[in-house]
């Protein structure tokens, strides 16, 4: 099968190394230290999740791995080579799926392949990946005819068609309902089994991180540092509602809560923020994307 053949061509030992990476931005009110000396070593084929309060630099870090941003200090390497520019070997999937409404499903998937190969070849590859995300029947549909889950699947197929070694996912399922998200968890895990890609997955949803990750990194409030790393030693596939997943999620949530309170104190009116922080206590696991 095509997919397997293309995988064999991949270089082995595609290690991803984030080495003492800091990032400053110049904002209107002065300099913002977004990330402070982040170091993470990721093995080939690992599924890594990042959780942390809003504004702690998760997207910035993902962008640096993609080569869309450069670190102010430190370096990101793929197989020992410094990442300086974007490459189709590291593809980002965003929350909003970012599909082109004027193209149909298969044209969206083909988009990144346009300059690389002839029409027949790219159609064949796109069909392979559309089938992989179970959208084979919808290749002629337009974006406005698709549900949120289907749009996510198209975005995943489009990314996979580029045959990247590293898939970077920035809160890709945050806007979906819980049932659709559960199905997509199964699908992305199945795809990951088949493709052996390295996945770095950002989420606000702690249970989602435990459901999917080999390791989960908790970030501090800005400036983002690694607060704690959790190795998730649970067999796969995992059930988001199982006792063991909930237990891990609670441990991670405890680490995260402190950071969210810090974020709220800094970002919003103090009285409101304390009230909000108290409200978070019994709520527990899923912080939603607005926090
Ligand atoms: N291009 C930019 N210019 C100025 N500040 C930025 C820029 N990109 C991000 N930031 C700031 O850096 C911090 C981290 O942002 P981001 O990586 O988007 O956080 P997260 O994804 O964890 O919510 C935030 O305070 C944000 O406002
Ligand atoms: Mg973000």
Report the CATH superfamily.
P-loop containing nucleotide triphosphate hydrolases
- Name of the CATH architecture: 3-Layer(aba) Sandwich
Biggest β-sheet description: 6 strands, mixed
**N-to-C series of helices and strands:** HEEEHEEEHHHEHEHEEHH
CATH fold description: Rossmann fold
Q: What's the total count of β strands?
A: 10
Descriptors for this entry?
globular; disordered C terminus; single chain; binds adenosine-5'-diphosphate; 10 strands; alpha/beta; 291 residues; Rossmann fold
Structure explained in plain terms:
The chain is an alpha/beta fold and 291 residues long. It has one domain: Rossmann fold. The protein is built from nine helices and ten strands. The chain has a six-stranded mixed β-sheet with strand order 6-7-8-3-9-10, sandwiched between helices. Helix 6 links the parallel strand 7 and strand 8. Helix 4 packs across helix 5, helix 7 crosses helix 8 and helix 8 runs antiparallel to helix 9. The longest helix is centred in the last third of the chain and has 25 residues. It starts with a helix and ends in an 8-residue tail after the last helix. The relative contact order is 0.16. The C terminus is likely disordered. The site of magnesium ion has 3 residues, from helix 2.
Short description:
With 291 residues, the protein is of the alpha/beta class.
Ordered list of secondary-structure elements with their pairings:
Elements: H1 2-8, E1 16-27, E2 30-42, E3 47-51, H2 58-66, E4 73-78, E5 81-82, E6 90-94, H3 105-110, H4 119-132, H5 148-161, E7 166-170, H6 178-195, E8 198-202, H7 206-212, E9 215-219, E10 226-231, H8 243-267, H9 270-283
Parallel strand pairs: 3-8, 3-9, 6-7, 7-8
Antiparallel strand pairs: 1-2, 1-4, 4-5, 9-10
This protein binds adenosine-5'-diphosphate and magnesium ion.
């Amino acid at each position: 099968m095509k997919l397997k053949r293309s995988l064999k061509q991949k270089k082995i030992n595609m290690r991803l190394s984030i080495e003492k990476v800091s990032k400053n931005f110049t904002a209107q009110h002065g300099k913002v230290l977004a990330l402070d000396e982040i170091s993470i070593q990721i093995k080939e084929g690992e599924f890594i999740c990042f959780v942390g309060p809003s504004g702690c630099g998760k997207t910035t870090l993902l962008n640096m791995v993609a080569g869309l941003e450069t670190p102010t200090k430190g370096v990101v390497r793929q197989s020992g080579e410094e990442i300086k520019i974007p490459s189709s070997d590291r593809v980002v999937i965003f929350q909003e799926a970012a599909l082109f409404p004027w193209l149909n499903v298969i044209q969206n998937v083909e988009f990144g392949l346009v300059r690389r190969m002839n029409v027949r070849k790219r159609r064949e590859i796109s069909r392979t990946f559309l089938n992989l995300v179970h959208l084979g029947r919808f290749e002629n549909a337009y974006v406005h005819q698709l549900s949120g889950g289907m749009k996510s699947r198209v975005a995943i197929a489009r990314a996979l068609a580029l045959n990247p070694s590293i898939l970077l996912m920035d809160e890709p399922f945050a806007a979906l309902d819980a049932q659709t998200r559960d199905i997509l968890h199964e699908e992305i895990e199945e795809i990951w089994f088949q493709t052996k890609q390295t996945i770095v997955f950002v989420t606000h949803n702690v249970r989602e991180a435990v459901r999917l990750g080999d390791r989960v990194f908790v970030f501090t409030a800005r400036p983002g540092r690694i607060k704690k790393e959790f190795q998730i030693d649970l067999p796969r596939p995992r059930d988001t509602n199982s006792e063991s997943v909930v237990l891990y999620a609670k441990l991670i949530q405890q680490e995260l809560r402190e950071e969210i309170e810090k974020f709220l104190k800094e970002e919003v009116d103090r009285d409101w923020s304390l009230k909000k922080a108290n409200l978070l206590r019994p709520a527990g696991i899923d912080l939603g994307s607005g926090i």
